[in-house]
Amino acid sequence: MKPRANEVINGTYGTVWVDGELWAEVDTFEAKVTVNYEDVNFAGQGGTFKKATGWAGEGSMTIKKIYSRVQRKMADQVRKGIYPRFEIVGKLSDPDARGTERVAIHDVTIGEFMLLKFEQKTLGSEEIPFTFSDYEMIDTIQ
Question: Which Pfam family, just one, is annotated for this protein (predicted)?
């Protein structure tokens, strides 16, 4: 079957919820899994083989600076020695494409956050890098 241009999914329809709260000001979002491998060598074999030893999850999102969302969730807690963990659900559902992709990301930790940032005559945005230790694919595109 030949693909059609309208079936290419459009990121405009992406949405993100953090701890059940819709963050409509998210501009970009990505979450990825990196599989960790160690080299395995065998006598008499010239090739190097790989053995999986686990995986790591990381991502980032960029948000328009409208609220102090991250600062409210992190700043006071971190000063007290408490490091919050979050749940994120991301969804991409272009009505003109082939379906919906949705993922739940669990045990999310934010490793750095901006206390204050601005630039004259520039709209404010904030990049939020994160890591996670579990995820589940809720919906995939067929």
Answer: DUF2001
